[in-house]
């Protein structure tokens, strides 16, 4: 059966980026449908009635939701090309642990960097850097989180990279000064075509955040 | 090689219950080590330095952390007996979606039921019931979340059941009146020896919560 694959997404989403990268890695043809999050499509509401969020992968009419679950699903179904999760169960559990860590710990402070100011902003920056330093300690001197090849943890973290310029500008700090190995890792990731093709431009994200920020912060 | 399996746990934990159930389901012999969460063991801090939380499964000296990841890990390593995740990748993604939903949506309101009062308590009860109703709608008239057999979603939800008596008593409401099918499902689960052996007694949990509550609520 010919596969019909549709991705409901929103261009600056670090979660959507995960799915876009994996679809390129696996060589899967798909239709990209941009969502207007202020006016969500009936298809999005129908395909993800619980969370009503992007990204949603629709394969032959059947939805898969939540980006880290979508990535695992794609890796399991299209398992012959560019495997992302380790084949060893223990290493797989460790990869899941770090993706879970990213999902639980990184989003909240990263959001507060551009949506708060003063003491709240300082606390957000501190927390954000602490989380990145834990990840840096985990990366050590390996090229990628899983070792020699680009994998599940890399896919799930790299989407944040296109937001770094916005974080640094609104937070007035340098992520590279704090976490040089994370930046070296991110640059290594962007040498992959699947990543460079899927990551939005940092300045474009900055422009988007600048607009969004008007709702939260009065400069 | 003989497997040496140790579980670091704390008896009322709905997350620890998940792992206890699966270890019984799979017929895995293990050593249970109760943690004092006010005075965590050096082993816990060493095995889970990131979150410093139970449960931790230690297999031949190597730790696996985060209950839903531990359950998947055990299911993958001991895959011949009592499979918990569906073998079909799409069904597996759906099971992961619902466990993720439980983890994101149920814990927070359930905690607020016994740790707040007044309007905050009423909001917590409303949210808790809404989440259970979404799950009930998903269960429909199936015996278990995955269909005919006890599986991943059941394992990850049933640990809350031993807290229901405490929620109902402190919240002054009946979960059964709101979600009768969830209660019927829970009773069905407790007919399994793996569940009845692993779930602490609801009145004992109530006693524990009563003590804990003194820190949060002045009656």
From TrEMBL, chains A, B:
Protein's UniProt keywords contain Signal: no
Keyword list, A-Z: Detoxification, Transferase
Residue stretches in coiled coil: none
Domain GST N-terminal: 3-82
Sequence ranges assigned to domain GST C-terminal in this UniProt record: 88-216
Pfam family, one: GST_N
Cellular compartments annotated: Cytoplasm, Cytosol
Keyword Repressor: no
Chief localisation class: cytoplasm
Catalytic reactions of this protein: RX + glutathione = an S-substituted glutathione + a halide anion + H(+)
EC number(s) reported in the record: 2.5.1.18
Gene3D superfamilies named in the record: 1.20.1050.10, Glutaredoxin
Family note: Belongs to the GST superfamily. Tau family.
Name the UniProt record assigns to this protein: glutathione transferase
């Amino acid at each position: 059966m010919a596969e019909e694959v549709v991705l409901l997404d929103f261009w600056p989403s670090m979660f959507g980026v995960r799915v876009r990268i994996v679809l390129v890695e696996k060589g899967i043809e798909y239709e990209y449908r941009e969502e207007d999050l202020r006016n969500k499509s009936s298809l999005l509401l129908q395909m993800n009635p619980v969370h009503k969020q992007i990204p949603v992968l629709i394969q032959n009419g059947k939805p898969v939701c939540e980006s880290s679950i979508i990535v695992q699903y794609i890796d399991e179904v299209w398992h012959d090309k560019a495997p992302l999760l380790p084949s060893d169960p223990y290493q797989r559990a460790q990869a899941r642990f770090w993706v879970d860590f990213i999902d639980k710990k990184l989003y909240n402070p990263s959001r507060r960097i551009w949506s708060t100011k003063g003491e709240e902003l300082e606390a957000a920056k501190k927390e954000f850097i602490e989380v990145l330093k834990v990840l840096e300690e985990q990366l050590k001197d390996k090229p990628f989180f899983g070792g020699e090849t680009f994998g599940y943890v890399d896919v799930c973290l790299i989407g944040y990279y296109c937001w770094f310029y916005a974080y640094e500008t609104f937070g007035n700090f340098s992520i590279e000064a704090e976490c040089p190995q994370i930046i070296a890792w991110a640059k290594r990731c962007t040498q992959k075509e699947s990543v460079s093709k899927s990551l939005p431009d940092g300045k474009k994200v900055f422009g988007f955040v600048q607009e969004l920020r008007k709702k939260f912060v009065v400069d």
